[in-house]
Specification:
mainly alpha, about 0% strand
Length: about 230
């Protein structure tokens, strides 16, 4: 009987970034809703304040009316119109208090939504950096392989030069180097080659170019978890 080995699924290296972006989108939507609700609440408070403002002179009119009634010896109720307006003002004040209370609640919710959205954005930015680092590790492996091959080639070429130097008489070595000057120069130039020097602040300095590219890659990942990391 054959044994079936279960294959383990390879985890998606960008799954966490995709989750962070989704969370950011939800937070942005929630912030938009909170902002719209807050604006409606502010408008409602302004409208309620305007209605209350319509009764700004009501107390003076009530006082003046009552004064005239006292002069006449009238101890009765205020005119129905003033009583009605006083009830309407009380209702308007209660409505204003309600709207002001709602505004306070929605201001706190909006502040919380802003904080959540800000944290969600920061989480995406950080995870995009982590994604780059994880995938750049493969580039580091390529660099290590290239360096090891470079060292191996350098040792081979140096060993060849040493072998020829040991094997030949001085005049023979001089003759062969003069006769094979171009080839010998190519070998030694390659072995002794060093990276060109660049002005540190120059925009053409290789690391400056690479930093710009990394920033572009990071910005792309922040927007889209499936953005490619490509240098070609």
């Amino acid at each position: 009987m054959k044994t079936v080995t279960a294959l383990k699924a390879t985890p998606d290296p960008r799954a966490e970034l995709a989750c962070r972006i989704t969370a950011r989108e939800r937070a942005a939507a929630a912030l938009l809703q909170a902002a719209e609700a807050l604006e409606r609440a502010r408008q409602a408070v302004m409208e309620a304040e305007a209605i209350v403002g319509n009764f700004s002179d009501l107390e003076e009119r009530i006082a003046a009316t009552r004064a005239e009634m006292v002069k006449r010896g009238d101890k009765g109720e205020l005119p129905p119109d003033l009583i009605r307006q006083r009830k309407e003002r009380r209702k308007a004040l209660e409505r204003l208090a309600e709207q002001a209370g709602a505004l306070g609640v929605l201001e706190r919710e909006h502040s919380d939504a802003k904080k959540t959205a800000r944290n969600a954005e920061e989480a995406v930015v950080l995870e995009a950096h982590r994604t780059i680092l994880r995938e750049a590790a493969g580039m580091a492996d390529e660099l290590m392989e290239a360096k090891q091959r470079s060292w191996s080639l350098a040792h081979r070429l140096l060993a060849l030069d040493q072998t020829i130097g040991i094997s030949l008489l001085p005049e023979q070595l001089l003759a062969i180097r003069m006769g094979m000057h171009a080839e010998h120069t190519r070998i030694m130039s390659a072995v002794n080659a060093i990276e060109p020097m660049y002005v540190a602040v120059s925009p053409m300095e290789p690391q400056a170019i690479a930093r710009k590219k990394w920033k572009q890659i990071h910005a792309a990942l922040v927007a889209d978890a499936n953005a490619p990391i490509a240098w070609e």
